[in-house]
Amino acid sequence: MTDAPAPPAPDEHAPTVSVLALTPLLTIEIEPSGPRDGSPEVHVHPGGQGLWLGRMAYSLGARVVVCGPFGGETGMVAAHLARAENLDLRTTTTGGNGAFVHDRRSGDRAEVVTMDPYPLNRHEVDDLYGTALVSGFDAAVTILTGSETDVGVAPSFFERLTNDLHASDRTVVADLSGEQARAVASGAGAVLKISHEEMVEGGFSDDDSEKALLAGARELVADGPRALVVSRAEDPTLLVTPDRTYSAQAPDVTTVDHRGAGDSMTAGIAVGLARGLDLPGAVRLGVAAGALNVTRRGLGTGRRDQIERLAERVTVEEIS
Hints:
10-stranded mixed beta sheet; UDP-N-acetylmuramoyl-L-alanine:D-glutamate ligase; single chain; alpha/beta; about 35% helix; 10 helices; about 325 residues; 4-stranded mixed beta sheet
């Protein structure tokens, strides 16, 4: 994972984006020999979906507040590194955060070890909810992220948070799957981003054809979300609202690492909405952020000027 130049600090008029980071991680990557003496390089970064999203949102010029549980040795280091990347943390407690070690010396990513996070107890869940809620009241947009690991947070947590923020006219962008996504979809007002695989695996679509994905998306937005964004790898992204449907396509690029593209897209959508863009404009920025991220080594990375220039080449069309 290569290090990029630090993005400039947001200006005083930059919008604030709050991120619920349910499972912050400590990530360690072993890279092939470096330029000095031929020995391997070891890179240590804060990770997990919420922190990757926060990194991209900051790169796009937003002020980023991250709400999440941090604890134990892994949490202490991850929090320190996240603050060094200019993320403003609102921490709650946990017994310990997860971590992984990946070895890339062969050219492929080999998993050396993965440690799951400690589950949250009832008091820790309540504290996290209050922290995310109050932070969301103060932010232009709140991003909700979930976890594939059971950390003791029920799907209803996301539905309540979405509804409570929507009731105060706060904008919510959710990047979730499975029952967590279903819970947000049953609430009101969120922009829900989900991949085509997750649409099928979650039972929202019969298959991954565009026709089936559109049918499932239109059914979901009929009574709940403000909009559904379906990412489809190299195929055009779909944006479905109760009234209109769009496709968004970035220029073809060569993929170096596909991981993090969806998170970068979500961050771009959230920052676009925080800037006051309409949904198609925000999705255009998100598609550009995701497309540029796959050309890089480093999840949630990219330069604002390059992403915004690429966004001008993203085609957004209304479809029937």
